[in-house]
């Protein structure tokens, strides 16, 4: 009799634990979905409606040839083909990624950019808080608690600096910077080689150069505003040696970089970075 009672108690405890775990997982998923929905709504309400300004920002879109029939390409031409497809095949999508920064900054003055990678779910505002470096690690665009946070520019970086490092969460739901993990595959990088960053100064495009797995304290994170040519070239050489792969020639001193950084499943201090060079 006592054994049955003990078994019943154990079963009840297990069922309770299972129910609590299920509720927590569902609640976590629901929060992430709400975060994603909020970003999509923000995207919609802040898209620019000034057609003249949009046309000027993407005035080069009609100069590129049609690449709809291009299904294979080698390493040397991958980035160029992808850019052509990005602009030519998705003209409307590209145009819709032009945002009204007056509206964005009226909602939150700490927004400095909008980051997007065509063909992925990365399509988010970028925050910058030099006096509070990780402010948006667990806050949404409106300043409320959020498990997803908002991508943010390194506190010591500057727009148009030598290397703009942008951090974002790797969410299990596949949102935020989770798609960056796909860049472990070189073929994925070749097909999604264009990273776009919008600021108040306009739209800039970057071509993926390298992907690496590093620690959170890696010295590459010190490359923000290079004091000289030798420093820049040494940092590029070091990270290139650690890279999973590189595409194209090494960046030269004077070329601007953008680096997207996220956590990996390999451990708390492990990071994956995608480095791209301004076109």
Folded structure, characterized:
The chain has a single domain (42-278), classed as Sortase, Chain: A, CATH 2.40.260.10. It has helices at residues 2-45, 51-57, 75-88, 91-96, 101-107, 186-191, 229-242; strands at residues 111-116, 123-127, 152-153, 163-167, 194-199, 202-215, 243-246, 257-264, 267-278. The protein starts with a helix and ends with a strand. Strands 1, 2, 3, 4, 5, 6, 7, 8 and 9 form a nine-stranded mixed beta sheet that branches. The chain is built from seven helices and nine strands, in the order αααααββββαββαβββ. The protein has 279 residues and is of the alpha+beta class. Helix content is 35%, strand content 22%. β1 (111-116) and β2 form a beta hairpin.
CA radius of gyration? 22 Å
**How would you describe the shape?**
globular
> What is the helix content?
25-40%
> What kind of sheet is the major sheet?
9 strands, mixed
Derived structural class: alpha+beta
Mean pLDDT: 81
CATH superfamily descriptor? Sortase
Sequence of secondary-structure elements? HHHHHEEEEHEEHEEE
Give the terminus-to-terminus CA distance: 77 Å
Would you spell out the secondary-structure blueprint of this structure?
Elements: H1 2-45, H2 51-57, H3 75-88, H4 91-96, H5 101-107, E1 111-116, E2 123-127, E3 152-153, E4 163-167, H6 186-191, E5 194-199, E6 202-215, H7 229-242, E7 243-246, E8 257-264, E9 267-278
């Amino acid at each position: 009799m006592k054994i049955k009672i003990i078994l019943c108690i154990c079963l009840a405890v297990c069922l309770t634990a299972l129910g609590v775990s299920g509720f927590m997982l569902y609640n976590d998923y629901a929060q992430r979905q709400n975060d994603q929905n909020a970003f999509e709504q923000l995207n919609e309400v802040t898209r620019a409606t000034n057609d003249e300004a949009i046309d000027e920002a993407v005035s080069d879109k009609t100069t590129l040839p049609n690449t709809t029939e291009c299904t294979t390409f080698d390493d040397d031409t991958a980035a160029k083909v992808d850019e052509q497809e990005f602009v030519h095949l998705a003209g409307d999508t590209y145009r819709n990624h032009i945002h009204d920064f007056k509206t964005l900054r009226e909602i939150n003055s700490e927004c400095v950019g909008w980051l997007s990678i065509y063909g992925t779910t990365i399509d988010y505002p970028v925050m910058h808080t030099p006096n509070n470096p990780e402010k948006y690690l667990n806050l949404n665009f409106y300043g409320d608690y959020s498990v997803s946070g908002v991508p943010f520019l390194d506190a010591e970086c500057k727009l148009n600096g030598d290397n703009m490092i942008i951090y974002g969460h790797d969410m299990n739901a596949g949102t935020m910077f989770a798609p960056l993990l796909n860049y472990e595959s070189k073929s994925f990088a070749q097909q999604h080689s264009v990273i776009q960053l919008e600021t108040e100064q306009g739209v800039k495009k970057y071509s993926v150069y390298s992907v690496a797995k590093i620690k959170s304290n890696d010295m590459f994170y010190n490359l923000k505003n290079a004091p000289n040519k030798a420093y820049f070239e040494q940092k590029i050489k070091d990270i290139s040696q650690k890279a999973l792969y590189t595409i194209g020639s090494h960046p030269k001193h004077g070329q601007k970089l953008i680096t997207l950084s996220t956590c990996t499943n390999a451990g708390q201090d492990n990071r994956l970075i995608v480095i791209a060079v301004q076109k």
